[in-house]
Write a structure and sequence with these properties.
alpha+beta; seven-stranded mixed sheet; 7 helices; 37% helix
């Protein structure tokens, strides 16, 4: 018996809020699969994703396979005081490196909030293309993200894209895993 070939990315598209809402179940299933989270995680994350869609500067880019299904997704928005992630990271950076470093990174940034690619097509450039398309034309000075610590494809991707350490081994409230916060100056170089 021969395994069916895995679908390949056919095109990249920007999704409007209403388009992501219509595909939210599919997007969250991709998130759970890519992150290897337990079933049930999607229901917990759905309200957060819906709230993020209302933030200033929100944008979303998706990779679609040859059947029109999500093969990858990335979204983010303009980071600002009062947002949970901003406050957590600002506190951590201030404690580790001082207020001046926190001000440098966090006064004008785009938060790359979510980036997920189907496991069977990871390592083929989809994630890099999603990031490049997501931040293309973003008027912020920096892009910031957080990712679990440890060697992973995500870390290799971010390093290849020029992300540097902003905060390492940080524990967000409510999550026992250590995270790295990475950042880089915008714009990205030409693709």
């Amino acid at each position: 018996m021969t395994a069916a070939p895995s679908p390949h990315v056919q095109r990249f598209v920007e999704l409007r809020v209403d388009e992501l809402r219509a595909r939210l179940r599919e997007a969250l299933d991709l998130y759970v699969t890519a992150m290897r989270y337990p079933q049930g995680t999607a229901e917990q994350r759905a309200p957060m994703w819906l709230a993020h869609m209302m933030r200033e500067g929100w944008r979303c880019v998706a990779a679609l396979d040859d059947r029109g299904r999500l093969a990858g997704i990335a979204y983010g928005y303009r980071g600002a005081p009062g947002q949970w992630w901003h406050e957590q990271v600002r506190r951590g950076v201030t404690e580790q490196s001082g207020a001046a470093v926190a001000d440098l990174w966090m006064s004008d940034y785009f938060e790359l909030t979510e980036l997920h690619v189907r496991p069977e097509i990871q390592g083929r450039g989809t994630g890099a293309e999603l990031v490049a398309r997501l931040v293309d034309g973003v008027p912020s000075a920096h892009v910031l993200l957080s990712t679990p610590e440890g060697p992973s494809r995500a870390w290799r991707l971010y390093r290849r894209l020029g992300f540097t350490d902003v905060l390492r081994h940080y524990r967000f409230a409510g999550d026992p895993r250590p995270f790295g916060v990475l950042g880089r100056v915008l714009p990205l170089e030409e693709r």
